[in-house]
Write a structure and sequence with these properties.
Radius of gyration: 27 Å
Shape: flat
Number of strands: 0
Strand content: under 5%
Structural class: mainly alpha
Mean pLDDT: 81
Oligomer: single chain
Order of helices and strands: HHHHHHHHHH
Amino acid sequence: MNELMTIFTQRELFLLVIGTVTYIALFVVTMQNSRRKILLLQERLNKVRAMQETHDVEANQQRIYELEALIQKLGDENTTLRLELEEKKARLDYTNTIARIEDEKRQRADTDIFQSDTYLKIKRLLLEGKSMGEEDWPQLSMLVDGLYTGFTEKLYSLYRLSEQDYRVCLLIKIRIAPKDIALLTAHSKESVATTRSRLYQKIFGKKGSTKDWDDFVLSL
């Protein structure tokens, strides 16, 4: 009887040890996955912030004014700090120059889009109630990347888009209405809406409206 109790107790102890080790292993894996997700999200947000700062001329100009004021206060004192501030100001001046050029290109691109053969064909398809063919998508992609430098590269640097994700983004970029995106991609309006809100949450790590995603795509 005592031998049976001993065997039973050893078995329980063995199972307890196995269970504890398994729990600890799962906990460690879960924590590592959680940390990895946080790091990936932070990396994406840093990329988004860098993209947005390139176009934020007013905010950059305000920082330039602040740096100029600090530089004047320093005068000839603390040469090292003054040089660092001047370097930051120079970088912001350069960023603003690029931003102004990009804005001008963007305005011209918006006009060129609506006059392009690809856009006019898309409008004809909508009038006929037809979806876009497989041969139409490469042409649209080339048009968008040609007018908005690095559009596709920026998107894929943030998230691994599916084919449908990318196509929705292309159509948003050329200002096609959501109901028309549904027709052109042969998907339901609900599916298109889900794609847009899902992409926003994936990129920004928080819930957002479909318009939030559209505004982001248009800013690229």
